[in-house]
Amino acid sequence: MEDKINLSKYVKLWWMMTSMVSQNAFVSRFGAVLFVLGKLIRFVFFLFFLLIIVSRTQAIVGYTLWQVILFYITFNFIDSLAQFFLREVYRFRSYVVTGDFDYFLTKPIPVLFRLLFGGSDVLDIPIMLLSAGFITVALSKIGSISPAEIFIYFALLINGFLIALAFHVFVLSIGILTSEVDNTLWLFRDLTQMGRFPIDIYQNPLRSVITFIIPVGVMVTFPAKAAMGLLSAQSVIFAFIIGIFFLFISYKFWNFSLKRYTSASS
Amino acid sequence: MKKYYIIARNTWDEMLTYRVSFVMWRIRNIIQLLTIYFLWQVILPPGKTLLGYSQSLMLTYILGTSLIDSVVLSSRTYAVGEEINSGNLMNFLLRPINYFLYWFSKDIGDKAMNICFSIAELTLIFIILRPPFFIQTNPFYILFFVFSVILSLFIYFFLNFLLGLIGFWSPEVWAPRFIFITLLGFFAGSLFPLDILPKTIYEILRFLPFTYLLYFPLKIYLGQLSFLQIASGLAISIFWTFAIYFIVKATWQKGLKSYTAYGR
Predict the structure, then answer these.
(1) What is the secondary structure of A196-242 as a DSSP string?
(2) Chain B interface test: which of A36, A44, A47, A49 (most B C-beta within 10 Å)
Protein backbone atom coordinates (compact mmCIF):
# COMPACT_ATOMS: atom_id res chain seq x y z
CA MET A 1 0.00 0.00 0.00
CA GLU A 2 2.81 2.34 0.95
CA ASP A 3 4.63 1.52 -2.31
CA LYS A 4 1.50 2.47 -4.25
CA ILE A 5 1.27 5.79 -2.44
CA ASN A 6 4.96 6.45 -3.10
CA LEU A 7 4.60 5.66 -6.79
CA SER A 8 1.68 8.05 -7.20
CA LYS A 9 3.69 10.68 -5.31
CA TYR A 10 6.55 10.32 -7.78
CA VAL A 11 4.21 10.41 -10.77
CA LYS A 12 2.64 13.60 -9.39
CA LEU A 13 6.08 15.08 -8.82
CA TRP A 14 7.20 14.19 -12.34
CA TRP A 15 4.02 15.72 -13.74
CA MET A 16 4.59 18.98 -11.83
CA MET A 17 8.24 19.27 -12.89
CA THR A 18 7.40 18.40 -16.51
CA SER A 19 4.60 20.99 -16.58
CA MET A 20 7.01 23.68 -15.41
CA VAL A 21 9.75 22.71 -17.87
CA SER A 22 7.16 22.56 -20.68
CA GLN A 23 6.13 26.14 -20.01
CA ASN A 24 9.77 27.09 -20.48
CA ALA A 25 9.98 25.13 -23.73
CA PHE A 26 7.06 27.13 -25.14
CA VAL A 27 8.38 30.56 -24.16
CA SER A 28 9.58 30.79 -27.75
CA ARG A 29 6.82 29.15 -29.77
CA PHE A 30 8.75 29.84 -32.96
CA GLY A 31 11.76 27.93 -31.61
CA ALA A 32 9.59 25.05 -30.34
CA VAL A 33 7.91 24.67 -33.74
CA LEU A 34 11.28 24.70 -35.52
CA PHE A 35 12.75 22.08 -33.19
CA VAL A 36 9.78 19.74 -33.68
CA LEU A 37 9.89 20.39 -37.42
CA GLY A 38 13.64 19.62 -37.51
CA LYS A 39 13.10 16.30 -35.70
CA LEU A 40 10.31 15.37 -38.11
CA ILE A 41 12.42 16.29 -41.14
CA ARG A 42 15.31 14.16 -39.82
CA PHE A 43 12.93 11.24 -39.23
CA VAL A 44 11.32 11.43 -42.67
CA PHE A 45 14.64 11.95 -44.51
CA PHE A 46 16.21 8.95 -42.85
CA LEU A 47 13.23 6.76 -43.75
CA PHE A 48 13.56 8.04 -47.29
CA PHE A 49 17.29 7.19 -47.25
CA LEU A 50 16.49 3.61 -46.16
CA LEU A 51 13.82 3.37 -48.84
CA ILE A 52 16.28 4.51 -51.52
CA ILE A 53 18.99 2.05 -50.41
CA VAL A 54 16.69 -0.94 -50.19
CA SER A 55 14.94 -0.10 -53.46
CA ARG A 56 18.34 0.00 -55.19
CA THR A 57 19.74 -3.15 -53.54
CA GLN A 58 16.58 -5.21 -52.70
CA ALA A 59 17.84 -5.99 -49.16
CA ILE A 60 20.45 -5.04 -46.55
CA VAL A 61 22.27 -8.10 -45.15
CA GLY A 62 19.21 -10.15 -46.04
CA TYR A 63 16.64 -7.87 -44.38
CA THR A 64 13.67 -6.60 -46.39
CA LEU A 65 12.53 -2.96 -46.48
CA TRP A 66 10.00 -3.24 -43.64
CA GLN A 67 12.44 -5.23 -41.52
CA VAL A 68 15.10 -2.52 -42.02
CA ILE A 69 12.45 0.09 -41.17
CA LEU A 70 11.55 -1.82 -37.98
CA PHE A 71 15.20 -1.69 -36.87
CA TYR A 72 15.30 2.08 -37.46
CA ILE A 73 11.91 2.75 -35.87
CA THR A 74 12.80 0.66 -32.83
CA PHE A 75 15.98 2.72 -32.41
CA ASN A 76 14.00 5.90 -32.89
CA PHE A 77 11.34 4.95 -30.37
CA ILE A 78 13.81 4.04 -27.60
CA ASP A 79 15.93 7.10 -28.41
CA SER A 80 13.00 9.52 -28.30
CA LEU A 81 11.57 7.82 -25.20
CA ALA A 82 14.92 8.29 -23.43
CA GLN A 83 15.17 11.90 -24.60
CA PHE A 84 11.61 12.61 -23.50
CA PHE A 85 11.94 11.21 -19.99
CA LEU A 86 15.63 11.87 -19.30
CA ARG A 87 16.16 15.34 -20.81
CA GLU A 88 17.10 16.73 -17.39
CA VAL A 89 20.43 14.87 -17.62
CA TYR A 90 21.43 17.32 -20.40
CA ARG A 91 21.22 20.14 -17.84
CA PHE A 92 23.25 18.36 -15.16
CA ARG A 93 26.60 19.97 -15.94
CA SER A 94 25.29 23.46 -15.22
CA TYR A 95 23.87 22.22 -11.90
CA VAL A 96 27.31 20.93 -10.86
CA VAL A 97 29.24 23.96 -12.14
CA THR A 98 26.91 26.53 -10.58
CA GLY A 99 26.53 24.60 -7.32
CA ASP A 100 22.76 24.10 -7.80
CA PHE A 101 23.35 20.39 -7.32
CA ASP A 102 23.96 21.04 -3.59
CA TYR A 103 20.50 22.57 -3.43
CA PHE A 104 18.97 19.38 -4.88
CA LEU A 105 20.79 17.30 -2.28
CA THR A 106 19.03 19.14 0.53
CA LYS A 107 15.55 18.57 -0.92
CA PRO A 108 13.29 15.73 0.34
CA ILE A 109 13.28 14.11 -3.13
CA PRO A 110 15.64 11.27 -4.10
CA VAL A 111 18.32 13.18 -5.95
CA LEU A 112 18.75 10.57 -8.68
CA PHE A 113 15.03 10.75 -9.45
CA ARG A 114 15.24 14.55 -9.59
CA LEU A 115 18.21 14.46 -11.98
CA LEU A 116 16.80 11.81 -14.28
CA PHE A 117 13.11 12.74 -14.42
CA GLY A 118 13.23 16.38 -13.38
CA GLY A 119 11.80 17.76 -16.61
CA SER A 120 10.60 15.75 -19.58
CA ASP A 121 10.92 17.28 -23.02
CA VAL A 122 7.47 17.68 -24.54
CA LEU A 123 9.03 18.54 -27.90
CA ASP A 124 9.90 14.83 -28.23
CA ILE A 125 6.26 13.73 -27.98
CA PRO A 126 5.39 14.10 -31.71
CA ILE A 127 8.36 12.00 -32.84
CA MET A 128 7.65 9.44 -30.10
CA LEU A 129 4.03 9.05 -31.21
CA LEU A 130 5.07 8.89 -34.86
CA SER A 131 7.59 6.14 -34.04
CA ALA A 132 4.95 4.20 -32.08
CA GLY A 133 2.59 4.46 -35.07
CA PHE A 134 5.30 3.29 -37.47
CA ILE A 135 6.12 0.32 -35.21
CA THR A 136 2.52 -0.84 -35.57
CA VAL A 137 2.65 -0.41 -39.35
CA ALA A 138 6.05 -2.14 -39.68
CA LEU A 139 4.95 -5.09 -37.52
CA SER A 140 1.79 -5.55 -39.58
CA LYS A 141 3.71 -5.22 -42.89
CA ILE A 142 6.32 -7.80 -41.89
CA GLY A 143 3.46 -10.22 -41.16
CA SER A 144 3.48 -13.72 -39.67
CA ILE A 145 4.48 -12.44 -36.24
CA SER A 146 3.01 -14.42 -33.36
CA PRO A 147 1.50 -12.74 -30.27
CA ALA A 148 4.35 -14.24 -28.21
CA GLU A 149 6.92 -12.52 -30.47
CA ILE A 150 5.06 -9.23 -30.15
CA PHE A 151 5.01 -9.63 -26.37
CA ILE A 152 8.78 -10.32 -26.31
CA TYR A 153 9.33 -7.32 -28.61
CA PHE A 154 7.60 -4.95 -26.20
CA ALA A 155 9.30 -6.54 -23.18
CA LEU A 156 12.67 -6.02 -24.89
CA LEU A 157 11.70 -2.42 -25.71
CA ILE A 158 11.25 -1.80 -21.98
CA ASN A 159 14.57 -3.58 -21.39
CA GLY A 160 16.14 -1.27 -24.01
CA PHE A 161 14.81 1.76 -22.17
CA LEU A 162 16.29 0.41 -18.92
CA ILE A 163 19.71 0.12 -20.62
CA ALA A 164 19.34 3.72 -21.85
CA LEU A 165 18.41 4.72 -18.29
CA ALA A 166 21.54 2.94 -16.99
CA PHE A 167 23.67 4.83 -19.52
CA HIS A 168 22.22 8.12 -18.31
CA VAL A 169 23.01 7.17 -14.71
CA PHE A 170 26.59 6.46 -15.82
CA VAL A 171 26.72 9.89 -17.48
CA LEU A 172 25.52 11.57 -14.27
CA SER A 173 28.06 9.64 -12.21
CA ILE A 174 30.92 10.60 -14.53
CA GLY A 175 29.57 14.17 -14.38
CA ILE A 176 29.95 14.22 -10.59
CA LEU A 177 33.53 12.93 -10.75
CA THR A 178 34.75 15.05 -13.68
CA SER A 179 32.04 17.71 -14.32
CA GLU A 180 32.11 16.40 -17.90
CA VAL A 181 28.58 15.63 -19.10
CA ASP A 182 27.87 16.93 -22.59
CA ASN A 183 30.58 15.02 -24.42
CA THR A 184 29.85 11.74 -22.64
CA LEU A 185 26.18 12.15 -23.39
CA TRP A 186 26.74 12.86 -27.07
CA LEU A 187 29.17 9.97 -27.29
CA PHE A 188 26.41 7.73 -25.94
CA ARG A 189 23.98 9.19 -28.49
CA ASP A 190 26.39 8.47 -31.35
CA LEU A 191 26.98 4.94 -30.14
CA THR A 192 23.25 4.26 -29.96
CA GLN A 193 22.90 5.68 -33.48
CA MET A 194 24.92 2.68 -34.65
CA GLY A 195 21.72 0.79 -33.84
CA ARG A 196 19.79 2.59 -36.58
CA PHE A 197 20.89 -0.34 -38.73
CA PRO A 198 20.93 -4.03 -37.70
CA ILE A 199 24.21 -4.67 -35.88
CA ASP A 200 24.90 -7.53 -38.33
CA ILE A 201 26.43 -4.91 -40.66
CA TYR A 202 29.37 -4.30 -38.32
CA GLN A 203 32.49 -6.43 -38.37
CA ASN A 204 33.98 -8.05 -35.29
CA PRO A 205 35.35 -6.98 -32.83
CA LEU A 206 33.16 -3.87 -33.20
CA ARG A 207 29.99 -6.00 -33.29
CA SER A 208 30.98 -7.76 -30.05
CA VAL A 209 31.78 -4.43 -28.40
CA ILE A 210 28.34 -2.99 -29.20
CA THR A 211 26.66 -6.22 -28.08
CA PHE A 212 28.46 -7.06 -24.85
CA ILE A 213 30.39 -4.02 -23.60
CA ILE A 214 28.24 -1.10 -24.72
CA PRO A 215 25.05 -3.07 -25.37
CA VAL A 216 23.56 -0.93 -28.13
CA GLY A 217 22.69 -4.11 -29.99
CA VAL A 218 20.79 -5.53 -27.01
CA MET A 219 19.06 -2.19 -26.55
CA VAL A 220 17.95 -1.61 -30.15
CA THR A 221 18.60 -4.56 -32.49
CA PHE A 222 17.47 -7.39 -30.20
CA PRO A 223 13.81 -6.23 -29.85
CA ALA A 224 13.41 -5.97 -33.63
CA LYS A 225 15.06 -9.36 -34.17
CA ALA A 226 12.77 -10.91 -31.55
CA ALA A 227 9.73 -9.60 -33.41
CA MET A 228 11.03 -11.22 -36.61
CA GLY A 229 11.54 -14.51 -34.78
CA LEU A 230 15.30 -14.32 -35.30
CA LEU A 231 16.32 -14.25 -31.64
CA SER A 232 16.91 -17.46 -29.68
CA ALA A 233 15.44 -17.97 -26.21
CA GLN A 234 18.97 -17.83 -24.76
CA SER A 235 19.55 -14.43 -26.39
CA VAL A 236 16.27 -13.11 -24.94
CA ILE A 237 17.31 -14.23 -21.46
CA PHE A 238 20.79 -12.79 -22.05
CA ALA A 239 19.21 -9.44 -23.04
CA PHE A 240 17.27 -9.19 -19.78
CA ILE A 241 20.32 -10.20 -17.74
CA ILE A 242 22.36 -7.48 -19.49
CA GLY A 243 19.60 -4.91 -18.84
CA ILE A 244 19.34 -5.71 -15.13
CA PHE A 245 23.12 -5.99 -14.77
CA PHE A 246 23.70 -2.57 -16.39
CA LEU A 247 21.07 -0.92 -14.25
CA PHE A 248 22.54 -2.47 -11.11
CA ILE A 249 26.13 -1.51 -11.97
CA SER A 250 25.10 2.04 -12.93
CA TYR A 251 23.32 2.47 -9.59
CA LYS A 252 26.40 1.20 -7.71
CA PHE A 253 28.58 3.59 -9.71
CA TRP A 254 26.19 6.44 -8.91
CA ASN A 255 26.52 5.75 -5.17
CA PHE A 256 30.30 5.53 -5.54
CA SER A 257 30.41 8.92 -7.33
CA LEU A 258 27.99 10.64 -4.99
CA LYS A 259 30.20 9.75 -2.00
CA ARG A 260 33.08 11.51 -3.76
CA TYR A 261 31.18 14.70 -4.56
CA THR A 262 33.18 17.60 -3.14
CA SER A 263 30.74 20.45 -3.73
CA ALA A 264 33.64 22.50 -5.12
CA SER A 265 31.42 24.95 -7.03
CA SER A 266 29.07 25.92 -4.23
CA MET B 1 47.39 40.50 -41.63
CA LYS B 2 49.42 39.57 -38.57
CA LYS B 3 46.45 40.06 -36.20
CA TYR B 4 44.36 37.58 -38.19
CA TYR B 5 47.17 35.07 -38.08
CA ILE B 6 47.26 35.49 -34.28
CA ILE B 7 43.47 34.95 -34.09
CA ALA B 8 43.83 31.70 -36.06
CA ARG B 9 46.70 30.59 -33.82
CA ASN B 10 44.72 31.49 -30.68
CA THR B 11 41.83 29.33 -31.90
CA TRP B 12 44.27 26.45 -32.36
CA ASP B 13 45.55 27.03 -28.79
CA GLU B 14 41.99 27.24 -27.43
CA MET B 15 41.28 23.82 -28.87
CA LEU B 16 44.41 22.45 -27.23
CA THR B 17 43.26 23.93 -23.92
CA TYR B 18 39.96 22.01 -24.03
CA ARG B 19 41.61 18.81 -25.22
CA VAL B 20 39.08 16.34 -23.77
CA SER B 21 36.18 18.09 -25.49
CA PHE B 22 37.98 18.11 -28.81
CA VAL B 23 39.14 14.49 -28.61
CA MET B 24 35.60 13.40 -27.68
CA TRP B 25 34.27 15.36 -30.65
CA ARG B 26 36.71 13.54 -32.95
CA ILE B 27 35.79 10.14 -31.43
CA ARG B 28 32.18 10.92 -32.21
CA ASN B 29 33.18 11.69 -35.80
CA ILE B 30 34.92 8.31 -36.09
CA ILE B 31 31.83 6.49 -34.76
CA GLN B 32 29.61 8.29 -37.27
CA LEU B 33 32.05 7.54 -40.08
CA LEU B 34 32.35 3.84 -39.17
CA THR B 35 28.55 3.45 -39.08
CA ILE B 36 28.20 4.69 -42.66
CA TYR B 37 31.38 2.93 -43.79
CA PHE B 38 30.18 -0.51 -42.61
CA LEU B 39 26.71 0.10 -44.03
CA TRP B 40 28.08 0.73 -47.51
CA GLN B 41 30.57 -2.11 -47.19
CA VAL B 42 27.75 -4.64 -46.75
CA ILE B 43 25.52 -3.00 -49.35
CA LEU B 44 28.27 -3.14 -51.96
CA PRO B 45 30.31 -6.32 -51.57
CA PRO B 46 33.38 -6.69 -53.86
CA GLY B 47 32.34 -7.17 -57.49
CA LYS B 48 28.91 -5.57 -57.09
CA THR B 49 28.12 -2.09 -58.45
CA LEU B 50 25.34 0.36 -57.75
CA LEU B 51 24.60 3.11 -60.27
CA GLY B 52 28.26 3.26 -61.31
CA TYR B 53 29.70 2.88 -57.81
CA SER B 54 31.89 -0.12 -57.07
CA GLN B 55 32.82 -0.88 -53.45
CA SER B 56 36.16 0.86 -53.95
CA LEU B 57 34.57 4.05 -55.34
CA MET B 58 31.83 4.13 -52.70
CA LEU B 59 34.20 3.64 -49.76
CA THR B 60 36.56 6.25 -51.25
CA TYR B 61 33.56 8.57 -51.43
CA ILE B 62 32.56 7.92 -47.79
CA LEU B 63 36.11 8.25 -46.42
CA GLY B 64 36.70 11.26 -48.68
CA THR B 65 33.63 13.07 -47.36
CA SER B 66 35.06 12.61 -43.86
CA LEU B 67 38.24 14.45 -44.85
CA ILE B 68 36.43 17.16 -46.82
CA ASP B 69 34.01 17.52 -43.92
CA SER B 70 36.92 18.55 -41.67
CA VAL B 71 38.06 21.10 -44.27
CA VAL B 72 34.68 22.54 -45.23
CA LEU B 73 32.21 21.94 -42.41
CA SER B 74 34.41 22.72 -39.40
CA SER B 75 33.54 26.25 -38.39
CA ARG B 76 33.29 28.55 -35.40
CA THR B 77 30.70 30.88 -36.90
CA TYR B 78 27.91 29.08 -35.03
CA ALA B 79 28.73 31.48 -32.17
CA VAL B 80 27.96 34.65 -34.20
CA GLY B 81 24.27 34.62 -33.20
CA GLU B 82 25.15 34.31 -29.51
CA GLU B 83 27.63 37.19 -29.78
CA ILE B 84 24.91 39.39 -31.23
CA ASN B 85 22.32 38.31 -28.65
CA SER B 86 24.66 38.78 -25.70
CA GLY B 87 25.77 42.23 -26.88
CA ASN B 88 29.39 41.08 -27.23
CA LEU B 89 29.34 42.20 -30.84
CA MET B 90 29.81 45.75 -29.55
CA ASN B 91 33.35 44.84 -28.44
CA PHE B 92 34.25 44.04 -32.02
CA LEU B 93 32.54 47.03 -33.56
CA LEU B 94 34.72 49.30 -31.42
CA ARG B 95 37.98 47.58 -32.36
CA PRO B 96 40.05 48.08 -35.54
CA ILE B 97 39.15 44.63 -36.77
CA ASN B 98 37.11 43.27 -39.63
CA TYR B 99 34.40 41.10 -38.09
CA PHE B 100 34.17 38.81 -41.14
CA LEU B 101 37.93 38.26 -41.25
CA TYR B 102 37.95 37.71 -37.50
CA TRP B 103 35.56 34.75 -37.85
CA PHE B 104 37.23 33.51 -40.99
CA SER B 105 40.58 33.45 -39.13
CA LYS B 106 38.95 31.51 -36.28
CA ASP B 107 37.61 29.08 -38.87
CA ILE B 108 41.11 28.61 -40.30
CA GLY B 109 42.47 27.70 -36.85
CA ASP B 110 39.58 25.32 -36.28
CA LYS B 111 39.95 23.71 -39.70
CA ALA B 112 43.72 23.26 -39.29
CA MET B 113 43.24 21.27 -36.08
CA ASN B 114 40.36 19.22 -37.52
CA ILE B 115 42.32 18.40 -40.68
CA CYS B 116 45.30 17.15 -38.63
CA PHE B 117 43.06 14.85 -36.58
CA SER B 118 41.08 13.74 -39.60
CA ILE B 119 44.25 12.69 -41.43
CA ALA B 120 45.47 10.78 -38.35
CA GLU B 121 42.09 9.03 -37.96
CA LEU B 122 41.87 8.08 -41.62
CA THR B 123 45.44 6.73 -41.48
CA LEU B 124 44.41 4.53 -38.56
CA ILE B 125 41.30 3.36 -40.40
CA PHE B 126 43.45 2.50 -43.43
CA ILE B 127 45.87 0.51 -41.30
CA ILE B 128 43.15 -1.39 -39.41
CA LEU B 129 40.41 -1.89 -42.03
CA ARG B 130 42.52 -1.76 -45.22
CA PRO B 131 39.65 -0.47 -47.36
CA PRO B 132 39.87 -0.61 -51.15
CA PHE B 133 40.69 2.97 -52.10
CA PHE B 134 40.64 4.82 -55.38
CA ILE B 135 43.58 7.14 -55.90
CA GLN B 136 43.09 9.85 -58.49
CA THR B 137 46.24 10.42 -60.56
CA ASN B 138 44.89 12.78 -63.22
CA PRO B 139 46.18 16.32 -62.39
CA PHE B 140 43.17 17.82 -64.21
CA TYR B 141 40.71 16.26 -61.75
CA ILE B 142 42.94 16.98 -58.73
CA LEU B 143 43.20 20.66 -59.66
CA PHE B 144 39.45 21.11 -60.08
CA PHE B 145 38.83 19.08 -56.93
CA VAL B 146 41.01 21.48 -54.89
CA PHE B 147 39.34 24.50 -56.50
CA SER B 148 35.83 23.19 -55.73
CA VAL B 149 36.82 22.49 -52.10
CA ILE B 150 37.98 26.10 -51.72
CA LEU B 151 34.68 27.35 -53.14
CA SER B 152 32.66 25.07 -50.86
CA LEU B 153 34.63 26.35 -47.89
CA PHE B 154 33.48 29.90 -48.67
CA ILE B 155 29.88 28.83 -49.38
CA TYR B 156 29.69 27.13 -45.98
CA PHE B 157 31.33 30.04 -44.19
CA PHE B 158 28.84 32.55 -45.60
CA LEU B 159 25.82 30.24 -45.06
CA ASN B 160 26.79 29.69 -41.43
CA PHE B 161 27.45 33.38 -40.91
CA LEU B 162 24.07 34.25 -42.42
CA LEU B 163 22.34 31.95 -39.92
CA GLY B 164 24.14 33.71 -37.07
CA LEU B 165 22.81 37.07 -38.29
CA ILE B 166 19.29 35.94 -37.31
CA GLY B 167 20.49 37.07 -33.86
CA PHE B 168 19.89 40.71 -34.91
CA TRP B 169 16.15 40.10 -34.98
CA SER B 170 15.53 37.04 -32.80
CA PRO B 171 17.03 35.41 -29.69
CA GLU B 172 16.13 32.06 -31.23
CA VAL B 173 19.37 31.31 -33.12
CA TRP B 174 19.68 27.58 -32.38
CA ALA B 175 16.37 26.32 -33.75
CA PRO B 176 16.98 27.52 -37.34
CA ARG B 177 20.51 26.12 -37.11
CA PHE B 178 19.08 22.74 -36.02
CA ILE B 179 16.98 22.65 -39.21
CA PHE B 180 20.01 23.73 -41.26
CA ILE B 181 22.19 20.94 -39.79
CA THR B 182 19.44 18.39 -40.45
CA LEU B 183 19.15 19.46 -44.09
CA LEU B 184 22.93 19.57 -44.43
CA GLY B 185 23.22 16.00 -43.09
CA PHE B 186 21.26 14.72 -46.05
CA PHE B 187 21.77 17.16 -48.89
CA ALA B 188 25.52 17.72 -48.58
CA GLY B 189 26.09 14.06 -49.40
CA SER B 190 27.87 12.77 -46.30
CA LEU B 191 25.55 9.74 -45.96
CA PHE B 192 25.40 8.80 -49.63
CA PRO B 193 26.31 10.22 -53.05
CA LEU B 194 23.39 12.36 -54.13
CA ASP B 195 23.18 10.83 -57.62
CA ILE B 196 21.71 7.61 -56.19
CA LEU B 197 18.54 9.62 -55.50
CA PRO B 198 15.70 9.57 -58.06
CA LYS B 199 16.63 11.73 -61.06
CA THR B 200 13.96 14.41 -60.46
CA ILE B 201 15.12 15.02 -56.89
CA TYR B 202 18.77 15.04 -57.95
CA GLU B 203 18.04 17.58 -60.71
CA ILE B 204 16.51 19.93 -58.09
CA LEU B 205 19.38 19.40 -55.63
CA ARG B 206 21.88 20.22 -58.38
CA PHE B 207 20.88 23.87 -58.09
CA LEU B 208 21.11 24.10 -54.29
CA PRO B 209 24.31 25.15 -52.49
CA PHE B 210 24.38 22.03 -50.23
CA THR B 211 25.28 19.84 -53.20
CA TYR B 212 28.54 21.72 -53.70
CA LEU B 213 29.81 21.32 -50.14
CA LEU B 214 30.84 17.63 -50.11
CA TYR B 215 29.23 15.74 -52.97
CA PHE B 216 30.49 17.79 -55.92
CA PRO B 217 34.20 17.95 -54.89
CA LEU B 218 34.20 14.19 -54.26
CA LYS B 219 32.58 13.47 -57.62
CA ILE B 220 35.35 15.44 -59.30
CA TYR B 221 37.98 13.52 -57.33
CA LEU B 222 36.45 10.19 -58.38
CA GLY B 223 36.68 11.30 -62.02
CA GLN B 224 32.98 10.63 -62.60
CA LEU B 225 32.15 13.99 -64.16
CA SER B 226 32.73 15.19 -67.71
CA PHE B 227 34.43 18.51 -68.40
CA LEU B 228 31.05 20.09 -69.12
CA GLN B 229 29.57 18.82 -65.86
CA ILE B 230 32.59 20.11 -63.91
CA ALA B 231 32.36 23.51 -65.62
CA SER B 232 28.62 23.86 -64.94
CA GLY B 233 29.07 22.67 -61.33
CA LEU B 234 31.86 25.17 -60.73
CA ALA B 235 29.74 27.93 -62.29
CA ILE B 236 26.89 27.12 -59.87
CA SER B 237 29.38 27.03 -56.96
CA ILE B 238 30.79 30.44 -57.93
CA PHE B 239 27.26 31.81 -58.29
CA TRP B 240 26.32 30.61 -54.77
CA THR B 241 29.58 31.90 -53.26
CA PHE B 242 28.91 35.44 -54.51
CA ALA B 243 25.13 35.31 -54.04
CA ILE B 244 25.39 34.28 -50.38
CA TYR B 245 28.26 36.74 -49.84
CA PHE B 246 26.10 39.66 -51.06
CA ILE B 247 23.10 38.44 -49.03
CA VAL B 248 25.33 38.28 -45.92
CA LYS B 249 26.68 41.79 -46.59
CA ALA B 250 23.20 43.25 -47.07
CA THR B 251 21.82 41.43 -44.00
CA TRP B 252 24.78 42.56 -41.90
CA GLN B 253 24.26 46.22 -42.90
CA LYS B 254 20.54 45.99 -42.19
CA GLY B 255 21.15 44.18 -38.89
CA LEU B 256 23.63 46.80 -37.69
CA LYS B 257 21.02 49.50 -38.19
CA SER B 258 18.61 47.70 -35.87
CA TYR B 259 21.29 46.58 -33.39
CA THR B 260 20.89 48.09 -29.93
CA ALA B 261 23.69 46.18 -28.13
CA TYR B 262 21.03 44.73 -25.84
CA GLY B 263 22.70 42.74 -23.07
CA ARG B 264 25.68 45.08 -22.63
Answers:
(1) GS-GGGSPTTHHHIIIIIS-HIIIIIHHHHHHTT-S-HHHHHHHHHH
(2) A49
Among chain B residues, CA nearest to A28: B172
Average pLDDT per consecutive 10 residues, chain A (266 residues; last block may be shorter): 71 91 84 91 92 82 89 94 92 87 89 91 92 93 88 95 95 88 88 88 84 87 92 94 95 94 74
- How many Cβ atoms are within 10 Å of B54's Cβ, its own excluded? 16
Q: How confident is the model at residue B264 (pLDDT cuts 50, 70, 90)?
A: low
The per-residue DSSP string of chain B comes to -HHHHHHHHHHHHHHHHTHHHHHHHHHHHHHHHHHHHHHHHHHS-TT--BTTB-HHHHHHHHHHHHHHHHHHT--SGGGHHHHHHHTTHHHHHTSSS-HHHHHHHHHHHHHHHHHHHHHHHHHHHHHHH---------HHHHHHHHHHHHHHHHHHHHHHHHHHGGGGT-S--HHHHHHHHHHHHHHSSSSS-GGGS-HHHHHHHTTSGGGGTTHHHHHHHTT-S-HHHHHHHHHHHHHHHHHHHHHHHHHHHHHHHH---TT-
Delimit the domains of chain A by residue range: 2-259
Q: Mean of the pLDDT values across residues B91-112?
A: 92
pLDDT of residue A3: 54
Which phi and psi (to 5°) does residue A229 adopt?
75, 25
Residue in B42, B174, B192 closest to A49 by CB: B192
SS3 at position A107: coil
* Structural contact between residues A266 and A105, judged by C-beta atoms closer than 8 angstroms: no
Taking CA atoms, A212 is separated from A174, B22, B166, in Å, by 21, 27, 46
pLDDT of residue B263: 66
Task: Give the Cα-Cα-Cα angle A145, A75, B192 (nearest 5 degrees).
Answer: 110
With CB atoms and an 8 Å threshold, state whether B196 touches A202. no
Give me the pLDDT at residue B241, please: 97
Rounded CA separation A227/A139 (Å): 8
Q: Which residues of B touch A42 (CB under 8 A)?
A: 182, 185
pLDDT digits (tens, 9 = 90+) for B246-261: 999 999 999 999 888 7
| A28: DSSP letter | S
Contacts with A221 from chain B: Cβ below 8 Å: none
Give the model's pLDDT for residue A96: 86
